[in-house]
């Protein structure tokens, strides 16, 4: 018998990953109908930011606590950039208001969860007084 059982990722990290995946699926529906003039610029940038954010979270899930912080921080930065580019797409009329609101609302909770995860990790890894 193996004395080192496989550690499963923390439930909170799976939840944030699941929520972001749901957001990406919604985005993917919108991306199919994205105007051709902006599809391979702003649209593709948004798509890449989604994928990169999911990628950083996926990597962080299986790292040791002290190794997670840079990945979570990058995921937060990518998510913030994603929100900016979604707003740009809306301002360029590549996303109508209803789609912009719907996709933006799905990103609120994952953003809060990532912020909480980052705060928890930095608190746990800070030197004790």
Properties at a glance:
single chain; 0% strand; mainly alpha; de novo design (two linked rop proteins); 129 residues
Please, what is the average pLDDT? 91
CATH homology superfamily name: 23S rRNA-intervening sequence
What portion of the residues fall into strands of 2 or more residues?
A: under 5%
Which CATH architecture would you pick?
Up-down Bundle
Structural class: mainly alpha
Regions with little confidence, pLDDT below 50 for 5+ residues: none
Largest sheet: none
Report the CATH C-level class. Mainly Alpha
The total number of structural domains is 1
In DSSP terms (H or I, runs of 4 or more residues), the helix count works out at: 4
Cα shape: elongated
Tell me the distance between the termini.
Answer: 41 Å
The name CATH uses for the topology is: de novo design (two linked rop proteins)
Helix and strand string, N-terminal first? HHHH
Q: Rg, please?
A: 17 Å
- Strand tally, please? 0
